[in-house]
Amino acid sequence: MLKNPFFILFLLFSISSITAQDPTNIPGTIYSEELVPPYTPPRDILTTFAGQKIKTTKEWETIRRPEIIKVLSTEMYGFTPQEKIPVSYRLVEINKNAFNGKATRKQIEMTFSNNGKSLKVQLLLYSPNNKKKPAPVFEILNFCGNQSLDYDSAIVISKTLTEEFEKTVYKKRIARTERGADAYLYPLEEMIDHGIGFATAWYGDFDPDYYDGFHNGIHNLFLKDGENQGNNDWGSIGAWAWGLSRIMDYIETDKDFDAKKVAVIGHSRNAKATLWASAQDQRFAITIPNNSGCGGAALMKRIYGETASSINKLFPHWFCENFKKYNNNEDSLTTDAHELVALVAPRPLYVGSAKYDQWADPKGEFIGMYEAQPIWELYGKKRFAYDQMTPLGFKVIKSQIGYHYREGKHDLLICDWEAYIAFLEYHFKM
Ligand code: GTR
After folding, report:
1. Distance (Å, whole) CA 372 – CA 358
2. Which pairing describes strands 395-396 and 401-409: parallel, antiparallel, or unpaired?
3. What is the pTM of this model?
4. What backbone phi and psi angles, to 5 degrees, belong to 397?
5. What burial letters (b/e) apply to 184-220, b meaning 16+ CB within 10 Å?
6. Which of 68, 211, 362, 429 is deepest in the core (most CB within 10 A)?
7. What tens digit of pLDDT does each residue of 91-142 get?
8. 137, 261 in Cβ contact below 8 A?
9. Could you tell me the distance, in angstroms and rounded to a whole number, from the CA of residue 269 to the centre of ligand 1?
10. Residues identified as active-site
11. Does the N-terminal peptide bond of residue 346 adopt cis geometry, omega within 30 degrees of 0?
12. Residues facing residue 295 across a β-bridge
């Protein structure tokens, strides 16, 4: 298909329209509660698709949880391949003197191979030097490459980033690929001072963020004859979630980190991947979706801000083909955000929302979390202490479900990280 000139023209057209458009200005987008049309309320989380009432954690784990994963796989994210593929880890760099000797920085090149093909992913890790036992860790996929988090010229720049960045993201993000350009958004030294480690990779290493018919990135390694395209083949969010689990596999081999204390965190599209990763992989101890929006914690049936149709139009590669059935037809969705969020239970979850992030529907993110709570209760965990979105800037930290709705725009800011650090300290009893 890639040899077909029309297909290539179509690709170039889709890429340029993605980079040129501000998605939040799509005409007809609903940004006011009064305009939210009546919608079918979320299905009770404790009732199966066939109408059976779930009464025990065993029933949740054996009946309801697996059926939700199946429906989310079929209808939204596509099925994640279950096959374990070979991986090797190469230590590219170790610097025991990071942050004036407070931390050790490691760079690991992960090489995945399958069906005669291979894919390389660059991992960047920091662990506190002053520790008596393996450190808890924040694990995150970054947007602009590992080199954007640290000024040091020793940081490896991913090959795919230099080759593909121009065409894969909004133009404004290109400036952020400079060395250290995003460093101000990641309080790495503060994490180290709190005894917390950090592990990251560029999300595009696992799957480039543009539509190419689900052939590039990690998808390619699972294609035997070069073809795919079942309606429930996994999209990019599935690939990024898969990547998060593979980073966890590495962490399990590294004695500097405590693999039982990994907090998986993500912002925006990577927050959607974070939720989907944690839903499928219960090794993640804490899950933190920051501004996750549509396809994340926000209830899609509200069609407030970004909708299934807008997300599928702008990012036709994020979800599986089946998800396109719900374009302008959200009320017929078989599943919704609360079912995704509930898969994190009973583990600690922190939902972060922002006022000027109406595109992500902060109220919808709250409802997605709120409607999922009965699963935490089933495990004997306390409900979230409030029945409504908490006041702006108020942070709920000492709770199984953490939450804040803050001033400001769509971003993962230092004030968000401060709340997340406190959440880890509380849950990991640090
Ligand atoms: C937006 C997209 C959102 C969100 C965001 C991001 O354009 O519509 O779903 O994921 O990008 O990742 O920053």
Report:
1. 21
2. antiparallel
3. 0.94
4. -115, -45
5. ebbbbeebbebbbbbbbbbbbbbbbbbbbbbebbbbb
6. 362
7. 999 999 999 999 999 999 999 999 999 999 999 999 999 999 999 999 999 9
8. yes
9. 5
10. 268, 410
11. yes
12. none
How far apart, in Å, are the Cα atoms of 190 and each of 99, 187, 294, 395, 414?
10, 5, 31, 19, 10
DSSP-derived 3-state class of residue 141: strand
Tell which atom from ligand 1 comes closest to the C-alpha of 23: 7
> Pocket around ligand 1: residues whose beta carbon is below 6 Å from it?
23, 268-269, 293-294, 306, 311, 314
Tens-place pLDDT, residues 296-344? 999 999 999 999 999 999 999 999 999 999 999 999 999 999 999 999 9
Q: Are 185 and 412 a contacting pair, CB within 8 Å?
A: yes
Q: Are 283 and 262 in contact (CB under 8 A)?
A: yes
The gap between the terminal CA atoms of the chain, to the nearest Å, is 54
Q: How far is the CA of 209 from the centre of ligand 1 (A)?
A: 11
Structural tokens at position 399: 């709770």
DSSP string, 71-97: HHIIIII-BPP-----EEEEEEEEEEE
Angstrom distance (rounded) from CA 338 to CA 299: 7
Q: Which of 123, 116, 59 minimizes the C-alpha distance to 91?
A: 123
Kindly report the protein residue whose alpha carbon is nearest to atom 10 of ligand 1.
269
Within its chain, how far is the Cα of 32 from the centroid?
27
CA neighbours closer than 13 Å in the CB half-sphere of residue 57: 8
All structural domains of the chain, each given as residue ranges with its CATH number in brackets, are: 35-427 (3.40.50.1820)
Relative to the CA of 310, which ligand 1 atom is closest?
Answer: 8
CB 283 within 8 A of CB 344: no
